[in-house]
Amino acid sequence: MSAAEGPLVVGVDTSTQSTKALVVDAATGQVVASGQAPHTVSSGAGRESDPRQWWDALCEALRQCGDAAREAAAVSIGGQQHGLVTLDARGEPVRPALLWNDVRSAPQARRLTEELGGAKFWADRTGSVPAASFTVTKWAWLAEHEPEAVRATKAVRLPHDYLTERLTGQGTTDRGDVSGTGWWASGTESYDTEILAHVGLDPALLPRVVRPGEVAGTVRDGHGLPFAKGTLVAPGTGDNAAAALGLGLRPGTPVMSLGTSGTVYAVSKRRPADPTGTVAGFADAHGDWLPLACTLNCTLAVDRVAALLGLDREAVEPSTGVTLLPYLDGERTPALPNASGLLHGLRHDTTGGQLLQAAYDGAVHSLLGALDLVLDEDADRSAPLLLIGGGARGTAWQETVRRLSGRPVQVPEARELVALGAAAQAAGLLTGEDPAAVARRWNTAAGPVLEAVQRDEATLARIAGVLSDAAPLLDRGTEIH
């Protein structure tokens, strides 16, 4: 046995580009073992992945965990949200999964919004206005462009659902992840039959929504993983809801996550419904709500700018009037799915380091613009902003967020918060605790606090002005088919 105080649990993060697994001591939160394996995403107009790669990556990540994984008493899967997984009668993928950052369904998003009562209808009904990232728009795109794939589909799943089902043999999801599909009514917490009928999706193809704290199933025979038959499997959830659990978030605490996508969110006791579509009214994984705004272009976009300039990502210089909107993959916040990157204010004396800083500024501006909409009226606007994700430990990211937000910034020392949140969910099955309380007991949010600096209002105003003036050009963009 491992030298652990309590039972061991496994938390998994199946993200856009890799799958990570942590074996965690449920008593202390100590990470006993870890593993990681990559998977591929297609390039070009679409963003697709073969779900079977996620399973292979999970197997490899758990293999790297060694004997500790065999001792686990419970497991939970946190995964990238919104992805459309279509399975045939044998449970095999009909086609590669359409991922969250595949924006080909932007026309379908606009059409669905118009056809079913407008933005307010969708916000009131599902908590969110459809965007190209949402699963319902991807299903509509598939029905229009690949009707033979739709006819062959006998089950529709999200990425975390797919892996959970391969563990248990049962089709399940949770309220956190299903709230990002666009076909789950947040007011009644049930599938919306009117929306499903409108897009031609039979509710029988969808998984059962498991309640918070409920066991989704147990590990079955013949899975090829190190778990014993009968190991408990938690409901799992979407990546942002898992990270919220991993931080042990209390209502009103703001979070900014810097990864392939950028997000800002906070736990709320109020069910959100923003008809502008800026804030997605997601559910969290333990009974509350998780209003969230997401950008498509964050760390990868800034790294791409650094690579084009031949610079290290930290080689920034103070910007002097140049503006760079790094919308390399279209953008969700603001809603410009056909946009590309835009550079304004270039001069003979502009340096590469200034251009790079402008890319950081453009990415952070988009996130901060949505933060006030995410927070409830009674939230403490002076509380430290929790900075997480792959970019959170970068000095350039930290300093840009401090300068443009004017808030203190706290950087949790714990890594892999999505996997830790999944582990906390698994631990909650064993102890009967709220998973967020488990994470608080593990002290996962602890980390240095960077003091607030004066907010750079001039840069914020300049970027807002360029964005406003260029919006018609950005919106016209180049249509993606």
From TrEMBL:
Gene3D superfamilies assigned: 3.30.420.40
Residue ranges of domain Carbohydrate kinase FGGY N-terminal in the record: 9-246
A Pfam family hit: FGGY_N
Site residues (Important for activity), renumbered to this chain: 13
Residues annotated as binding substrate: 81-82
Superkingdom, natural source: Bacteria
Protein's UniProt keywords contain Transferase: yes
Keywords: ATP-binding, Carbohydrate metabolism, Kinase, Nucleotide-binding, Transferase, Xylose metabolism
Enzyme Commission numbers on file: 2.7.1.17
Active-site residues, as the UniProt record annotates them: 239
Record's catalysed reaction(s): D-xylulose + ATP = D-xylulose 5-phosphate + ADP + H(+)
GO BP terms, alphabetized: D-xylose metabolic process; xylulose catabolic process
Single GO MF annotation: ATP binding
Domain Carbohydrate kinase FGGY C-terminal: 309-427
Functional note: Catalyzes the phosphorylation of D-xylulose to D-xylulose 5-phosphate.
NCBIfam families from the UniProt entry: XylB
Family, similarity comment: Belongs to the FGGY kinase family.
The name this protein goes by in its record: Xylulose kinase
The organism of origin for this protein: Streptomyces resistomycificus
Lineage of origin: Bacteria, Bacillati, Actinomycetota, Actinomycetes, Kitasatosporales
Protein encoded by which gene: xylB
